[in-house]
Specification:
By secondary structure, the protein is an alpha/beta fold. The chain has 13 helices and ten strands. It is globular, with a radius of gyration of 20 Å. Keywords: Signal, Transport.
């Protein structure tokens, strides 16, 4: 028979091979908000986290997922988690430095640093990956998981991009953060900051020419209807972070806290697997919908243009510097 487990932080890893059971208490309700569609790896990451947590503490928690921008866009969901309006959010990792001022999460999106999904997975659950999640605490958040919800490529509505020179002058949607601005200026585009929910209309009306995007988002937002030229670049992962409001987290019993951390860690690979498989298999679906897919002929030249940015950002943060060193060693 399963009995109560009291798990301290120091022994949580060893004890997490069995579920936590606490009897005689009502389920703890948690709302987890995100902005992605149901077929998107972001939603899958949220579902896998919910399943893992509810399995670890059966009957003790009730995680309700609000996806597809039901409670707001990416930035709004992150701000709601910081404020405690929602207990949990899944949001794009690039937004955390923008909203919180904690820059370390930029490490996961340095261009061409992480070579594939397996490399990302190794770094996500590494010691330095955990340090970067822990760095969110001063902003009122507990980082529980970081996962890749799709390698980024380049979708154009106006012309096919075959070489680096073809990027020149293209009005390209970015998340309006310094890292993305630097990357896409280095590529030669004219970056345009635009909310995610406005991308379809902007491509349709040619307010923008292109967007750097993952395959899952092209499908989830029906961007294939307005962008017919996809260039495979894999320039960086699109990392998503599941985070909890720190005040809410700190109020929970030790065994619930430990289970939340383990749920994030143990569900990372399932979300990665889904993102990787969708990235590859959905390309045929996009071709069937009339999207022309090509590989960048001089990808090495693009890598060289981006290389100085890695050193520049490593110099800004000891955590980023440590991440870069260990990522390069693990490549």
């Amino acid at each position: 028979m399963l009995t109560r487990r009291i798990v301290s932080v120091g022994v949580a890893a060893a004890a997490l091979t069995s579920p936590f059971v606490v009897r005689g208490q009502s389920p703890i309700r948690m709302r987890l908000a995100h902005a992605t569609a149901e077929i998107h790896p972001g939603h899958v990451a949220a579902v896998k986290f919910k399943e893992a947590l509810e399995k670890l503490v059966p009957g003790r928690v009730n995680v309700q997922i609000f996806g597809n921008r039901q409670l707001g866009d990416d930035k709004q969901n992150l701000e709601s988690a910081i404020a405690g309006t929602t207990q949990l959010c899944l949001a794009s990792g690039v937004l955390f430095p923008l909203v919180t001022g904690r820059s370390a999460l930029n490490a996961f999106q340095l261009p061409f640093l992480l070579k594939d999904y397996a490399h990302f997975g190794k770094m996500a659950v590494s010691d330095i990956g955990q340090k970067i999640l822990d760095d969110l605490a001063p902003a009122g958040l507990v980082g529980l998981e970081v996962t890749d919800i799709g390698q980024r490529h380049f979708l154009s509505a106006t012309r096919q991009v075959k070489k680096v020179a073809d990027f020149t002058g293209l009005k390209t949607r970015i998340v309006p953060v310094p890292l993305h601005k630097s990357i896409w200026e280095a590529a030669g585009t004219s970056p345009v900051g635009l909310p995610y929910g406005e991308v379809y209309g902007a491509l349709e009306t040619k307010v923008i020419d292109a967007v750097e995007i993952n395959v899952s988002s092209i499908l989830g937002e029906n961007l294939w209807e307005v962008g017919k030229n996809l260039t495979l670049t894999g320039h960086y992962p699109w990392h998503a972070v599941i985070a909890a409001n720190k005040t809410f987290f700190d109020r929970q019993p030790a065994e619930i806290q430990a289970a939340m951390r383990e749920a994030g860690r143990s569900s990372t690979q399932a979300a990665l697997d889904y993102a990787r498989d969708q990235d590859l298999s959905a390309r045929d679906l996009l071709k069937a919908k009339g999207v022309q897919i090509t590989e960048l002929e001089d990808l090495t030249a693009m890598r060289e243009k981006m290389r100085p940015l890695i050193a520049q950002y490593a110099a800004q943060s000891p955590l980023i510097a440590e991440f870069v060193e260990k990522a390069q060693a693990a490549a």
